[in-house]
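Provenance

Sequences were taken from public entries as deposited. Structures were produced by running a predictor on each sequence independently, with no templates supplied. The record for ABC transporter ATP-binding protein from Nocardia colli is shown for reference.
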Amino acid sequence: MANKGSLRALASLVRGHRGAVAVAVSLSLVGTGVGLAEPLLASATVSAAAEHRPWGWPVAALVVFFVAEAVISALSQYMLDRTGENVVLDLRIRIVDRLLRLPIRRYEDHRLGDLLTRTSSDTTLLRNTLSSVMVQTVTGALFVVGGVIAMILLDPVMFIIVAVTVLAGVVPAVAATSRIRQATLLAQESLGGMAAELERALSAIRTVRVAGAEDRERDRIAEPARKAYRENIFAARRTAVIFPAITLALHGSMIVVLVIGALRVSTGSVSLADLVGFLLYVSFIVSPIANLAFGVVAMHKGLAALQRVQQITDLPTEITDQPGTAVLPIPLRSGAAAVEFRNVWFGYDPETPVLRGLSFTVPEHSHVALIGPSGAGKTTVLGLLARFFDANSGQILIDGRDITEMSPAECRSRIGLVEQSAPVLYGTLEENIRYGCPDATIDEVERVVALAGLQELIRRLPDGLHTPVGEHGNLLSGGERQRVAIARALLPRPQLLLLDEPTSQLDSANEALLIRTINHISTECTLLVAAHRASTIEAADARITLNQSAELASTPTP
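Predicted structure for ABC transporter ATP-binding protein:
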């Protein structure tokens, strides 16, 4: 069975929706009361007919109660289902918010497809669980408790017979659910693996096609799908025994009640009307008991999904403020920034430093090329300045202020970054350019379009700036994506612009254009460029050279 901590976690999801749950449970209570009165009315009808008394009123009341129960049950189920949807909506938004705020290095611990599965598939399973647990378990429990009380009042002897018979079937059936949670967890993990493998193949679909690897990728993706299938079939087999076992036990108890009840009626120990009412209560609790058992199954599945969801929601977010430091307002972006590294040590694995005692200074309004062999730490330097991670020791200063005294938001408000991969998001060209500054005027957009050399592209596109660029910007060339990324970085007028191999995907003509643009930009802000190409290096005012082990760096030199 689930432990108390797991159940508390599941219950905590509805904490902010207590009002709606209270209304729904109240409706369930009323509906249960109405339903439990129906066998009594049926018994009254039988008594009236047997004693030749008028029986029209109990029949009419029975019809009214049937209709009332149906309406109340529908309202209750709607309220509970709606609450379940609201809970899962809140949870999905929490997951998305957490995923967008994780420390950068945390993304390396999870595959994209698996994260998407946790956000969609696992939360859908959790929604179904909440609906099942709240509807089936709450309603079923109320019906069973009410039915048990009524049967005890009608005939305690026959109730004991029913209880023993039913427990003989229900206990083994519920015990059969013990492995369902683990099977569901394995199935959901396999679905996450399948989504991750599919995302891997689709993101490199041209390579897959050229390599003729469609069949291999299909088989690779099918393996976790088959594992999920096997685990779900295992859970289905366990679930399949529940209803037949409970139904068989209850029907068996009804046969016993009929036989013993007939004998008790013949001896005058119980009336025929009471026997009819008792049998109706036995038949009434068949579905509620089954619902309780299915609620246990749903709870196991939901707890498995909740476990995967909590693995994300429990992750720490990026630190927004350094403890013990003043929270300063984000400054207006004006002027250029000076940068200084003082004896900075950093390693993605602390045991294997990438930067060893790195020190250099970049004056404001300068254009500095950061050069060195692959693996020397050029991209790492840019990542440290953007506070994607913090140095293990040493200081990094912008305008004389340690960046750890700034929140990441304040630090990044001073910086523009153009990554080597130049990511372009799904949407229009204008939406991509405005991404970091959505309120920019059209004049400001046109300014950076000109700076990045995008005028010709815009003239060629059917809808100009309003043209969709496709998934990951796949309707643009590599060079066009890079220029879009540069325009996006320039729009907020950063004090410090970081460029990681900005000309790596440009032809010679566009490279020359971009270098002229970069030279012009340095009049507005400081430029730090990680560079390999000779033309990019030669365009700089000064160079910082990292050696192979990143132990030494020269100060900026012409």
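DSSP finds 19 helices and nine strands in the chain.
Residues 323-333, 550-555 have pLDDT under 50 and may be disordered.
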